[in-house]
Amino acid sequence: MSVQSTADPAFDVIGLGFGPANVAIAGAVIEKWKDAASTDHAPLRRCLFIEKQREFRWHPGMLLPNSRMQISFLKDLATLRSPQSPITFLAYLHSQGRLVNFINRGSFTPTRREYADYLSWAAEYVQKQGIRVRYGEEVIAISRCEDGLVQVRSRDIGTGEEFSRIARNIVLSPGGTPRLPPALSIHWPHPRIIHSASYISSANEFFASLPRTTEPLRIAVIGAGQSATEVVLDLHSRLNALHVSGGRQHELDMIFRRGSVKPSDDTPFSNEIFDPASTDFVFGLPSQRDRQAVLREYNATNYSVVNVRTIDSLYEVMYHQNLLDGIKSRTGEEEDNNRTRITLCPHTAIYSSEMVPAHPDGATRGDAVRLTLHGLLSRSVTHRTYDAVFCGTGYDRDSWTRLLASSDLAEAYGVKSSAIELVAEGDAAPCEREILSALEGSIAGRATPTGSGSSDGFSTPPTPVTPHSHHTKFPGEGAPSKVRVSRTYRLLPEHDSKHAPRVYLQGCTQSTHGLSESLLSILGVRAGMVVDELCADGARQ
Ligand code: FAD
Questions:
Q1: Cys staple from 418: which of 97, 392, 405, 521, with CB 3.0 to 4.6 Å?
Q2: Which of 50, 107, 173, 470 to mutate to test the pocket of ligand 1 (most atoms within 8 A of CB)?
Q3: Strand partners of residue 15
Q4: pTM of the predicted structure, to 2 decimals
Q5: Domain shared by 60 and 119, yes or no
Q6: How many domains is the chain built from?
């Protein structure tokens, strides 16, 4: 495949991805343009964002009817940094003629559908102001050029055509990649194993693929976080709409490692962990061990937990199920809308899985997934076969590590293997680090592992993972390479910083910057900090 070198001169900034993180960066850049005395003096004039989706879309797989944001609308792309910004949520509401209605609604949390529309409106707005975006292209490699420039290679996802562009700075904001329990990931992708990231389209395809029979279905949902619980509720209504013959019921099992579905802590004092000042606090801690302790303490604000409203909805559905059972056993009366039985399977892990053909008695249709389940407390081993398995098992945020490790930039950052662990700039120097990490290792050996840096991830981590570190270990690899990151989200080269290109990370530095990293909470402030530094460095050149 030939690579097209675009005729473009070097870009000031190329951004990988055009999700909320990079839309916020684009918004902060536009603000700088507006502040400049004239267009000629405007900094960062040449910005390009490369996004693999064909158009702007925010988590389309989980835009379920009536699903709500877990955050105040005021924590939008800009307000905390710049309330006058043209891309605030309030500016969006005003432009859409819904400001008054939104106020009358009396809630700080928009629906996910409305927030997705806001983000896509903001993405359009910044493009109209001159920010360039290439949709439908995936960044596949970065490499070093002369004079501290970076070459960014991308591939058109439709035609396979490759492009090469040069930039002075790059901002990597790739978001998360769906994580599955290892026992299932060996079969993935498979139309019967569905991650919540593509829930709506994959569930539509799954239900459309079913033959017209009245046999009951058996479905498993793995996980007990927000996404898993929403998926259970949605599947319950879809299954209830599917007729079953002979008074039988569809079975919907929710399988998770903890004892129950736990509520998220969004009380005000806990919520302060998402304040911009908390990022300073976490980054300023003396060691990774201290940061991990803080992350563990506040885990229940975000990971493996469910909004109380969603928990109430699930409880209500299950209570209704009990009620109808009671009525049936007393009066023999059956209600038509009681076609699905939800069963919670707590303290359960997936030991292994295999794909099996359709069951001869029609109990399964098409390929089916046979799970071997391990009762964590009972020590029991059971087997169950499902028509489909849905996973609400979170995301990994380490795709950038593969990009860096496979690049000739790796050496400049001290990367010797694909396993990378971020460390904060102010942490101990390399020799001290070795001593500290030996100490940390002996302490970590005694600690209980918690969820890794992924949403909804706690419920189903089949193997223990280092908490909140971007540390992917590959077979045969030794200790991960430690890469330093600055408070301003810049990866710091080991030596020769003058000539190394500037690489920034957004949304992937939870281990050094804290829990708000993978969320929307501080997007505007974070983007402002990066853009300020880019402008300051540009002015010095
Ligand atoms: P993303 O939104 O994931 O965007 C990254 C973009 O990069 C994607 O568009 C992707 O296609 C693109 N990309 C990745 N790799 C490449 C590549 N190699 N080349 C080109 N493009 C690439 N957070 C909150 O604070 N509040 C909420 O209410 C909330 N709700 C959520 C609901 C769901 C269902 C999910 C999954 C997450 C939710 N989050 C929420 C967390 C979420 O991570 C943030 O809302 C936000 O999406 C983070 O923005 P981002 O730009 O870092 O990542």
A1: 405
A2: 173
A3: 49, 171
A4: 0.90
A5: yes
A6: 2
